[in-house]
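About this split. The held-out portion is used to measure sequence recovery: a designer receives only the structure tokens and must propose an amino acid at every position. Recovery is the fraction of positions where the proposal matches the reference. Here is one held-out target exactly as it appears in the evaluation file.
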């Protein structure tokens, strides 16, 4: 009887032991929302990073979930958060920081920074990228796919127009002059090539910053509680953009974000202003020699930063949060940040990445890749406020109204100021 009892107990212990071993070997699944609307090279790259991390950290399993555009991804992430099923981490716009804090959706990165190595890593990011990653003395996001806005220009078109193909326009005056010389018309007077094209869907506020920054005016305060849409310098900056269309050197009305690189590659526009995130695409597909230049200056030089950060969600289990932190730390190490910059066109997020032999070599062979990085010392934070989606829509609509001619630049900005003040009143 005792023997049978002993054997049963031994068998039960063995089963429990096997179950415990199996449990110990089961990796923690870590849902990771990534903003991409369609499959392709970028999803394969992210899948590759996840697989490499999982191989090196068998206790975790990063699971990329491709959630659509940035706008669609934050909606899905916040919806999941409210239902108690938030992803462990997501790459969302750096400008979503205030919204995510207001929704009590994320935890500070500082909570996971424990060792001297952790502290050194966090201090290693470019200060310009941290402007949209920190507030209230805390770090809320980890820079990943970050950018500045740059000018791409067709060197062949510059030569044909008698312009220096090795020098992008440096000032507003030079930009207007070049755009005029680069604009081509057919025998019937129809434009076949615009001198310049700037998209105004999706990120109109960001493109407006490529005029407000050189005009030495910020669109919002650092706390994200106040905007300056009706400032005379902001109105002057918008009018500069509007006048390019009035002068016939820029398409009239609203220009699509997604088609602008295509129009450049099809020689429908000789200069385009857009994210450095388009660099790899243009490099791979442009059938002509092209240059990349910093945003044209006026009172000063400068561009807004842009792009996405890693955030860690508050309602995710602690083990998932720890894994998300380790993944963000792993993927932003210098060698990987360097490779990501070459694969995507985004700016590598630290000087240490640019000091790697592979990115040094790439920069020597393809100097266009360094322009966005070199612009960082004169860059400002991308426009961001509390209630960011609502306030940004107000500004986007105002910019489009001015470009469409339904309002003057002054009226559009004054109306936008009034509405933004109403939205932000509770935060002041």
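Reference sequence for scoring:
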């Amino acid at each position: 009887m005792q023997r049978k009892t002993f054997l049963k107990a031994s068998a039960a212990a063995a089963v429990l032991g096997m179950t415990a071993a199996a449990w110990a070997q089961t990796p923690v699944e870590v849902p990771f929302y990534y903003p991409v609307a369609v499959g392709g090279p970028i999803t394969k790259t992210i899948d590759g990073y996840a697989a490499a991390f999982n191989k090196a950290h068998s206790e975790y399993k990063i699971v990329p979930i491709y959630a659509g555009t940035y706008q669609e991804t934050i909606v899905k992430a916040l919806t999941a958060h409210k239902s108690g099923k938030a992803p462990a981490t997501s790459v969302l716009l750096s400008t979503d920081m205030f919204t995510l804090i207001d929704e009590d959706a994320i935890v500070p990165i500082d909570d996971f920074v424990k060792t001297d190595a952790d502290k050194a890593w966090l201090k290693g990011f470019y200060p310009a990228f941290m402007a949209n990653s920190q507030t209230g003395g805390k770090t809320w996001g980890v820079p990943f796919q970050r950018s500045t806005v740059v000018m791409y220009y067709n060197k062949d078109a510059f030569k044909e127009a008698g312009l220096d193909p090795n020098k992008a326009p440096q000032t507003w005056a030079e930009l207007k002059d070049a755009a005029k010389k680069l604009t081509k018309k057919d025998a019937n007077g129809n434009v076949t090539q615009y001198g310049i094209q700037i998209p105004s869907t999706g990120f109109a506020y960001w493109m407006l910053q490529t005029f407000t920054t050189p005009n030495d005016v910020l669109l919002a305060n650092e706390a994200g509680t106040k905007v300056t849409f009706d400032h005379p310098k902001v109105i002057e900056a918008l009018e500069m953009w509007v006048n390019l269309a009035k002068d016939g050197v820029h398409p009239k009305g609203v220009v699509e974000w997604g088609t602008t690189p295509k129009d450049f590659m099809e020689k429908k526009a000789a200069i385009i202003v857009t994210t450095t995130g388009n660099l790899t695409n243009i490099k791979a597909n442009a059938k002509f020699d092209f240059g990349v230049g910093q945003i044209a200056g006026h009172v000063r030089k400068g561009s807004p930063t842009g792009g996405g950060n890693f955030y860690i969600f508050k309602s995710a289990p602690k083990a998932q949060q720890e894994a998300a932190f380790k993944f963000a730390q792993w993927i932003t190490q210098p060698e990987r940040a360097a490779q990501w910059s070459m694969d995507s066109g985004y700016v590598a997020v630290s000087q240490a990445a640019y000091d790697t032999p592979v990115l040094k070599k790439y920069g020597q062979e393809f100097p266009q890749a360094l322009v966005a990085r070199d612009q960082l010392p004169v860059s400002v934070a991308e426009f961001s406020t509390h209630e960011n989606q609502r306030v940004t829509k107000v500004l986007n609509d105002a910019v489009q109204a001015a470009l469409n001619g339904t309002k003057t630049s002054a009226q559009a900005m004054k109306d936008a100021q009034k509405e933004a003040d109403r939205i932000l009143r509770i935060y002041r």
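Annotator remark: Confidence is low (pLDDT under 50) at residues 1-23.
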